Amino acid sequence: VKIDSTITDASGKYLFDSLVAGTYSVQFVKPVGVDFVNQNVGVESTDSDVNPTTGKSDPVVIDTTKPIGDPARNNRDVDAGIKPAYGSIGDFVWTDVNNDGIQVPSELPIPGVKVYLYNGAGTVKLDSAITDANGKYLFDSLLTGTYKVKFVAPTGTIPAKQNVGNDLMDSDANKLGWSQVVTINTALLPSDTLRNNPNVDAGFVPVGSLGDYVWFDTNKDGLQTSGEPAVKGVKVYLINGTTGAKLDSTVTDTNGKYLFDSLLSGSYKVQFVAPKDTNFTTKGTTPTSGLDSNPNATTGLTDAVTIDTSFPLGNAARDNRSVDAGLTVNLGSIAGKTFDDNDKSGTQNAGDTDRSGVKVYLYKETTPGVFVKVDEVVTDSQGNYKFNNLTSANYQVQFNKPTGSTYTTPNVGDDTKDSDANPADGRTGIININTNLPETDLGRNSKYNDAGFTPIPDNCKDEICVPFEIKKVKK
Questions:
Q1: Element (DSSP H or E) covering residue 396
Q2: What is the band of 83 on the pLDDT scale with cuts at 50, 70, 90?
Q3: Residue 168 confidence (pLDDT) above 60
Q4: Which pLDDT band holds residue 470 (cuts at 50, 70, 90)?
Q5: How many C-alpha atoms does 132 have within 13 Å on its Cβ side?
């Protein structure tokens, strides 16, 4: 039965006097936002006497037969301690082996995971913790407010699917490790999950990886050899090994390296895109070495590679760093011959002679219709010349006619024997070099770009001829 009530004064004091002998209990009403501290933890004169849940003290006996001032008659030790009301957020991090986003008994906890507490906006870091041996973490002493939890994915894992089932058993971390906003209300009972939330969990899925290297196979032996350079900027695709669907893509870095990480257990293929003027080297010359080339020379596609995340981190079955591609450079050439067209037929015949020492210029189309000189050579003793190491492009060859000669008539017949130099400027027509063609194809290695020369007649100067003067001779 409630007998009386009062309010504590500015000094926190209260008093019920004029009590007759009997048994009493004092009940305190806690202010909003506070809790009672633990009961009877020390000496009677200084500890708290109220039950933290009910706010009631134990029964107190008042005996008026005792002298005034005796604690049994005038008890001044029925006190109540209060503390700010706090909430908490926890609780569990586990390995989601089957990638379903739900905790099952066979899936193990993950100790040592870093967990951060942020404000509800995710802009201010408030606290941090590390999961214990049982995968547990706890942020306590939280005031009323909104919070977010951020989990740092352990090496070799990615966050599981978020919020796919019962909040007691599912994962609350998104792909970046963030939980949803969690509201804590300390005015509620300690047993209320809106005050003490033990259901902010995170599952992490084991993953593997695929890499690793693209290089120029300069000696064309199909193996990585010291001194052979890495190739930057090669496009690489990750392919589903079963369906053939493209899953991801990347580009090799300055060291020729690429990496597809965060891979679930499964079958994969890698497809490399050969840069312009290159081909893939011979596949699998020494398959067990880890130094050979893996893509098909035609398609750029490797065989299927199985990733098994049940193996330890760094194991080749989980993290495969041996899917490489060697490239060979496709280059073309332009060659031909200069000759003295003695019979002025415009074609090379038995009576014609080789013309050595002729300067020959190579022009390359750098922008549409614009040709820039890129090289020059001089014909050898047999009148031959050759420009090597050409990439795919349009070219022209220009011949510098020897002193006392002019160009013969061009393009009169068999291209392997006639002259190709335009008499107006000494240039050939456009020669297209396509290094993706076989080496034996004239579209890659163009051979018959020739120039024939005829002598300038005595009555001509700078190719301008005048009639001979005809004189009448007396007999």
A1: strand 393-399
A2: confident
A3: yes
A4: very low
A5: 6
d(CA 74, CA 63): 8
Take residue 85 and report the two structure tokens written for it.
């009301």
Indicate the fold that domain 332-460 takes in CATH.
Immunoglobulin-like (2.60.40)
> pLDDT of 266-314, one tens digit each?
999 999 999 988 889 999 888 777 899 999 999 999 999 999 999 999 9
Give, as one character, the DSSP assignment of residue 287. G
Burial of 103 (C-beta count, 10 Å sphere; 0-12/13-18/19+): buried
Contact 79, 8 (CB under 8 A): no
> How sure is the predictor about 33, in pLDDT bands with cuts at 50, 70 and 90?
confident
Residue 288: what are its φ and ψ, rounded to 5°? -85, -5
Distance between CA atoms of 120 and 183, rounded to whole angstroms? Answer: 8
Token output for 72? 């049994």
CATH class of 87-206: mainly beta
Q: Which amino acid is residue 152, in one-letter code?
A: V
Backbone torsions φ then ψ of 94, nearest 5 degrees = -140, 165
DSSP string covering 165-220 = S-TTTBB---TTSBPPPEEE-TTS-TT-TTTEE----EEEEE-EEE--BEEE-TT-
pLDDT tens profile 361-377: 999 999 999 999 999 99
Domain segments of the chain as ranges: 1-84, 87-206, 208-328, 332-460
Q: Shortest CA distance to 33 belongs to which of 197, 203, 185, 137?
A: 185
Tens digit of each residue's pLDDT (9 = 90 or more) over 395-419: 999 999 999 999 999 999 899 999 9
Q: Residue holding tokens 């006639």?
A: 418
Which CATH number applies to 208-328? 2.60.40.10
Q: Do 332-460 and 208-328 have the same topology in CATH? A: yes
In angstroms, the CA 312 to CA 308 distance is 9
Beta carbons of 328 and 275 less than 8 angstroms apart? no
